Inverse folding.
């Protein structure tokens, strides 16, 4: 029998999705500042880039356990305000508090800095899964690429606010008792305040228990281990190949981003306040291309769109390597060092957001509403595993071969992901509709 059901569109879902995106806004605000300045703070005490890379994986060690566990727990939670919201309104404010204190800890000692990093990521990684799983709970599967584009746009706007706006405050000196005028402070506490404001707005205007599938999801509580066996026991291995693909593209991404700030300061000779502008270019691209990339995937298919974007990422990373060899020698002007690099990072962000916008919906398309959080947790398990693997490797490559090697390493990882994605046969928008 022919399916005559009208094709779903984002009409009627944009406002809800933008409001849900406030949760992702908080992550987009904190993550780029964290990735840019934590290595710089650690560099005050640690000289080895490989060791800095190892310390940067401490948060990911927590994430690899906390995100899947709390995502799955939220699947099985039932309260008056929803199944994701209790985690959001408690853990995100705690994350904001710890985040705001980090630069002050960095002035005191390495031990205190690592304790704050530990506390921040304990709260932030525990809440990340419930934050992300909120959207597919409330938006139909056929339009999740577009909805995820909206969510990523919010993350991109947050990255712009953080890296281009707040990061400039790192150059502003603040009079601290016993230290006098001190810079590298203001962006973190102000970001913490914005996170709390976003949480308040999210709680006031997003009513989770009004989602179309909330009642079904809260009643049908499938045991976690049973859900995992169902996922990995399927004859069709599309979910497995998506997860392995994202492992490799995140190894490439997480190998580059933690060192972009240090690369900008040490090699491109930019100021600390401008160190985050490279990540800011990625944020600008997020804001511009997130929604269009979802629309393109809806028309041409998620798998095809992702593979084309991976080819784009490989090309850009090779060009950044060439730039690092040619435009960082003595006698090259600051403009020739920075402007082409920023342009390439913008291009990197446009292709990267295309991959991210459409890969999550592919997994959600394979899930049902009783295990949505588990699929979300698996996504983060593999992405955070990449975050553990990548920084020590690329830090070691920098120590041995120089900064240019990390861009080639990332390009190879994207190439492997490109070939793995050819094995995926499910996850397209029409799969849910049929």
């Amino acid at each position: 029998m022919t399916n005559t059901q009208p094709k779903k569109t984002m009409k009627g879902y944009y406002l809800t999705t933008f409001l849900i995106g406030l949760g992702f806004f908080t992550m987009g605000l904190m993550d780029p500042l964290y990735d840019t300045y934590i290595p710089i703070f650690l560099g005050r005490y640690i000289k080895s880039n490989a060791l800095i890379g190892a310390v940067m994986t401490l948060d990911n060690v927590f994430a690899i356990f906390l995100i899947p566990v709390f995502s799955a727990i939220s699947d099985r939670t039932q309260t008056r305000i929803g199944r994701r919201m209790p985690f959001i309104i408690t853990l995100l404010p705690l994350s904001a508090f710890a985040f705001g204190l980090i630069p002050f800890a960095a002035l005191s000692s390495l031990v205190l800095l690592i304790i704050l990093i530990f506390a921040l990521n304990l709260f932030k990684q525990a809440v990340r899964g419930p934050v992300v799983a909120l959207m597919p709970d409330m938006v139909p599967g056929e339009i999740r690429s577009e909805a995820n584009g909206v969510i990523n746009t919010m993350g991109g706007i947050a990255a712009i606010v953080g890296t281009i706006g707040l990061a400039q405050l790192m150059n502003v000196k603040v009079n601290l008792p016993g230290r006098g005028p001190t810079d590298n402070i203001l962006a973190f506490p102000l970001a913490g305040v914005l996170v709390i404001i976003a949480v308040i707005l999210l709680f006031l205007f997003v009513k989770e228990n009004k989602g179309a599938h909330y009642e079904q999801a809260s009643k049908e509580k499938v045991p976690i281990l049973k859900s995992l066996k169902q996922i990995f026991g399927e004859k069709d291995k599309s979910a497995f190949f998506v997860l392995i693909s994202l492992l490799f593209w995140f190894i490439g991404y997480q190998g580059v981003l933690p060192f972009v700030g240090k690369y900008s300061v040490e090699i491109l000779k930019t100021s600390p306040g401008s160190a985050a502008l490279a990540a800011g270019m990625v944020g600008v691209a997020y804001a511009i291309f997130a929604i269009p990339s979802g629309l393109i995937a809806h028309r041409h298919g998620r798998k095809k769109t992702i593979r084309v974007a991976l080819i784009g990422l490989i090309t850009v990373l090779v060009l950044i390597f060439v730039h690092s060899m040619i435009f960082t020698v003595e006698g090259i002007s600051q403009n020739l060092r920075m402007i082409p690099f920023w342009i390439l990072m913008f291009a990197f962000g446009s292709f990267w957001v295309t991959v991210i916008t459409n890969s999550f919906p592919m997994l959600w398309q394979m899930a049902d509403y009783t295990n949505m959080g588990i699929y979300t947790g698996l996504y983060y398990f593999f992405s955070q595993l990449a975050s553990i693997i990548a920084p020590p490797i690329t830090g070691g490559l920098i120590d041995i071969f120089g900064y240019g090697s990390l861009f080639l390493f990332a390009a190879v990882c994207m190439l492997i992901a490109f070939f793995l994605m050819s094995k995926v046969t499910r996850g397209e928008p029409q799969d849910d509709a049929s």
Q: What stands out?
A: Residues 334-365 form the longest helix (32 residues). The mean pLDDT is 81. The chain has one domain: 14-214+224-433. The CA atoms of residues 261 and 275 lie 5 Å apart.
